[in-house]
Inverse folding.
């Protein structure tokens, strides 16, 4: 069952903020070991998914139901922001975030 765009926007925005807060709170722990840096990249790619969903729902609310996400403004913005978040954790997290985010986009 699909949610209404307003509810989906609110939920995805809250999840994006929560994911961002968790990644910044546990930044030092996520950068300690190899496995945790990979987890940090996965966390940043989850942030990408929530942010992209929030942006898409917000544009759908403001511009109407027929609006579709495009690669250059919306997806690129969400990807760059999530890569910056991953970069604040560790350099390896950037690569993991990029690969997992591309996997999310391809599915």
């Amino acid at each position: 069952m699909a949610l209404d765009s307003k509810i989906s926007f609110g939920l995805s925005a809250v999840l994006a903020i929560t994911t961002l807060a968790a990644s910044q709170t546990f930044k030092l722990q996520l950068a300690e070991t190899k496995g945790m840096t990979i987890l940090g990249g996965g966390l940043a790619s989850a942030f990408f998914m929530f942010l992209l969903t929030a942006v898409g729902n917000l544009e759908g609310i403001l511009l109407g139901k027929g609006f579709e996400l495009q690669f250059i403004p919306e997806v690129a913005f969400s990807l760059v922001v999530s890569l910056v978040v991953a970069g604040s954790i560790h350099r390896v997290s950037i690569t993991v975030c990029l690969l997992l985010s591309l996997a999310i986009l391809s599915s």
The first helix runs from residue 5 to 25. The two ends are 19 Å apart (CA to CA).
